[in-house]
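Q: What would this chain look like folded?
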Amino acid sequence: MLDVKEMDLRDWFAGQVLNALILKHHTEGLPDSPFQQHHHAHTAVHEAYVYADEMMRERARRSAEAT
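A: My prediction, written as structure tokens:
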């Protein structure tokens, strides 16, 4: 298991977003087949890192503006 000390900010951002995506998908209903569930989970994780990457870019942009 990944030690929390090894988690970077991008991972933390993705984890925060993933919580919201999971809640959103559960309210929409989960697919029936295991293949569809796997695909659904893979998509949610991918989306979480897309959001995390955008947060990292925005963080860098704001940091550059501050200097």
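The chain has a mean pLDDT of 86.
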